[in-house]
């Protein structure tokens, strides 16, 4: 018969019979339940499709760039630390009895003090850059995990919060990069940096100069 001839009560009876069949067979009384009684199993490709959207790929790019900023901040500090400072924290990086030192005597003492002062002056750049990039990367990862659903299933509040975070993070990164490079330039213009540059230049080490290093430029580029 056509669908117009079916009484309204028959639809509810059909649905009741189907649900009863699923409930009886799920108890395992007579035979295994038919496949339609189970919800469809989510495959790996279905899970990946929820993340590998344009929005998800942009989140992955943001996280990767934050990691690159983090690495470049640490690398810039390590490269500018000098021979007598490890990682920019004033820890001796070589032993005079076991490794070659280009300096000796009073010159060694002077360059060691200058290295320590220089790396301590740059320490705010390291702490600020690491904490900022790490916080931005973690928050981006949180939005990626929480929003790993089709866009039509996400709440409006979550999307509004994500939009506000993106605008705030983008503006903050522009300001942070400007402050980072400005602070690095200020440190490079100090007398400590110039004296240190002259001491290293006497021994032929021209890389310890008072210009913006490649690592600092990479921080600005990725930021």
TrEMBL record:
Compartments in which it is found: Membrane
Primary localization class, coarse: membrane
Residues in MARVEL domain copies: 50-223
Biased composition regions of type Polar residues, renumbered to the chain: 9-20
Annotated PROSITE patterns: MARVEL (PS51225)
Chain intervals for the UniProt region annotation (Disordered): 1-20
Topology of the protein relative to the lipid bilayer: Multi-pass membrane protein
Membrane-spanning residues: 126-146, 158-183
Keywords: Membrane, Transmembrane, Transmembrane helix
GO cellular component: membrane
Protein name listed in UniProt: MARVEL domain-containing protein 3
Organism: Dryobates pubescens (Downy woodpecker)
